[in-house]
Amino acid sequence: MTTRPPAEIGMSLDEVDTPALIVDLDVFERNLRRLADRVQGAGVRLRPHAKTHKCPVIALKQMELGAVGVCCQKVSEAEAMVYGGVKDVLVTNEIVGRQKLRRLMALAGSARIGVCVDDPAQIADLETAAAEAGVTLPVHVEINMGGNRCGVEPGEPALALARRIGDAPHLTFAGLQAYHGSAQHLRTWDERQKAIAGAVEKAAMTRDLLSANGIPCDNITGAGTGTFEFEAASGVYTELQCGSYIFMDADYGRNLDRDGAPTRQFEPSLFVWATVMSRPTEERAIVDAGLKALGMDSGPPTVWDEPAATYERASDEHGRLGITTATNRLKLGDKVKLVPGHCDPTVNLYDWYVGIRGERVEAVWPITARGAVY
Q: Could you write out the DSSP letters of every residue in 314-346?
């Protein structure tokens, strides 16, 4: 059941019920434009990852600024995007199971739906499902860039899968999925550059091997918010899958730019709006946003614009703030902005975005793919 929105358009920010997921629209729009401007003329396409925002409204805003489509991780996310008007979706994951494959093929009848493989059995199952549905499906071979998650090794293993795809009547080889996820949060600029240099070498070698064997590879897709500048400048990657750039989070904020300072490429625009529900001591304030309101896998949130307050500990419904000065203004009923440690799992805890412009609610957007994990 979708809950009622915590706000109405025209309401003041202070009236918004908590915990709520709020988006500073001015900053959000700057982030959108900044990435589009940064890659203009670089010879790469943008295909932002919708697993970050899970919202077709946002996906369409990204496409208005030139994105060719979006990425998803799950079939149910792809369904939410297509039903919301997005007609080009790449599922950057391996899809296994008859029920999921039938749903994927149903989408392929009304939108361009791509998918990834790293095993011959997946190719056989995709061919069977596509033949039954009467569709032709673009398929990417996922190669292991060093994250040691999904993906075959670069080179000959990828060539073998591309050949199998080419032999399947209802599948087409669409390129390489070459995302180096573990490089995104390497802290220094040099570390990230080195990691992506290795990924570029593997992707280029695989592309050239495919070409030498008569298999054109016109698309190499990957990259993320932490590394996109390297993939965009590589001359090898053709498509960028950045997702978190629109929101940023506390963990991405720990990445360092080339000069060693905290990253300034994008700004935090996503916050959990929380209320001080208890102030039992001068050193402690309790807010109403705990584990059910914040993704904590990348650490606790930071407290925005409250330098004397630190988010110390979360329980189910409570967050404990440590207060370092007796003059801190926080009192019972005050509200604070929390920058999530990790934006993606935090978004998945909410049904609505509350878009604010200054101190006023301007938009309320449904998080249509919230809970879409299958």
A: E-SS-EEEEE--TT----TT-EEEEE-S-HHHH
Token pair belonging to 171: 């599948």
In order of start, what are the domains of the chain with their CATH numbers?
13-20+264-366 (2.40.37.20), 42-248 (3.20.20.10)
Residues 154 and 141: their CA atoms lie apart, in Å, by 10
To which residue do tokens 């916050």 refer?
271
How far, in Å, CA of 180 to CA of 43, rounded?
20
What's the token pair of residue 295?
């993704």
In the prediction, which pLDDT does 66 show? Answer: 95
Please check the confidence at residue 1 and state whether its pLDDT lies above 60. no
Q: Report CA dihedral (219, 225, 229, 232) to the nearest 10 degrees.
A: 10
In Å, how far are 53, 74, 282, 349 from 303, measured between CA atoms? 21, 32, 17, 19
List residues bridging with 353 in a β-sheet.
21, 365
Mean pLDDT of 197-212: 98
Burial of 180 (0-12, 13-18, 19+ CB in 10 A): buried
In degrees and rounded to multiples of 5, residue 339 shows phi and psi of -90, 115
Neighbours of 275 (CB within 10 A): 18
* pLDDT tens for each residue of 120-149: 999 999 999 999 999 999 999 999 999 899
**In this structure, what is the dihedral angle of CA atoms 267, 249, 236, 94, given to the nearest 10 degrees?**
-150
Looking at residue 147, what is its pLDDT?
87
Is residue 326 pLDDT above 80, yes or no?
A: no
Please write the tens of the pLDDT for every residue from 173-195: 999 999 999 999 999 999 999 99
